[in-house]
Amino acid sequence: MPCSFRIPAALLLAAVLFACSPQSHEADPALWRVVDREGHVGWLFGTIHSSDRPVNWRTPAVAAAFERSGTVMVEVANLADEREVAATFAELARSEGEPPLSLRVAPQDRPAVEKLLKKSGHADHDFAEMDTWAAALTIARAGAEGEDTRYGVDRAVIAAAGARPVLELEGAARQLGLFDSLPEREQRDLLAAVVKEAAAPDRGLAKSWRSGDMTAIEKETRAGLLADPELRQVLFTGRNLRWTGLIARQIRSGKRPFVAVGAAHMAGPDGLPAMLAARGFRVVRVE
Questions:
Q1: 57-89 burial: b if 16+ Cβ within 10 Å, else e
Q2: At residue 14, does pLDDT exceed 50?
Q3: Considering only Cβ atoms within 10 Å of each terminal Cβ, which end of the chain, N or C, has fewer?
Q4: Is 39 in contact with 119 (CB distance < 8 Å)?
Q5: CA–CA–CA angle 85, 275, 168 (5° rounding)
Q6: What CA–CA distance (Å, rounded) separates 199 from 142?
Q7: What's the whole-number mean pLDDT along residues 111-121?
């Protein structure tokens, strides 16, 4: 990669949208059962992508659903192969002649950029060969202090799949490609949002995920970078719409998919449960 930057596998788009660090081993995250008109079934499970310690995500309800499933669906299947993901990131992130990072945000945001750069161990001019979106993801890691992608629930689900096929909803190249396709103006909006998020106090996201509080999680999907209409469409609504079609086909084909993606993707009228319900599936929250 350019310079000495390294991006861990789970610090992809999803991790920026919803990454948090639980303060205990126990959790009771949200789970939905999805059934089509023929009685074919699947499950939706909201995850986190990093944690400060292993998380006991297998509640009795989640464990029962997981054992009944025939396939596992995740955002990126090769999360453990950080070298491959890093190579994809490096290829897409490459640029040249870019201005200092502080000049890619509004003047009022520059002190926060400088603070985050210092925290991450980077200098303002270090990103001359990196696209703005990639620089934003790189310094976002400094705002995720104490988190470890090895303890992400997505990775744990993949490891527990056993003989079940693990299907990607998009994969690392497509996921990172969403960033790379953003106009520079939107990339700079992303950078500004990442900087502001890093400077914001803890809003209790970890607690919301642990308790399965989708009302609180839905509120967070309308803040930060997802408050920007263009970013929201590309990074959230559009992805959920595309995933809904893939999940629907798996359910209707009788594959009994266990879909494990970031909890934010389950939230609100643009979330996967709502989109599947709009297609005629019966979607019920499992208590």
A1: bbbebbeebbeebebbbbbbbbbeebeebbebb
A2: no
A3: C
A4: no
A5: 25
A6: 11
A7: 89
* pLDDT score of 8: 38
Which tokens is 78 given?
């090769």
- Count of CA atoms in the C-beta half-sphere (13 A) of 265: 29
Whether 257 contacts 32, CB under 8 Å: no
Please list, in sequence order, all residues whose beta carbon lies within 8 angstroms of the beta carbon of residue 88, skipping any fewer than 6 positions away. Answer: 172, 173, 176
Hunting for tokens 């995850």 — which residue is that? 47
Residue whose token pair is 């559009």: 238
Mean pLDDT throughout 218-238?
88
pTM of the model as a whole: 0.84
Which residues 6+ apart lie within 8 Å of 199 measured at CB? 112, 115, 116
pLDDT in tens, 155-182: 889 999 999 999 999 988 898 999 999 9
Tokens 């803890």 belong to residue? 202
**Amino acid letter for position 24:** S
CA nearest neighbour of 17 among 206, 265, 251: 265
Model pLDDT, residue 80 = 66
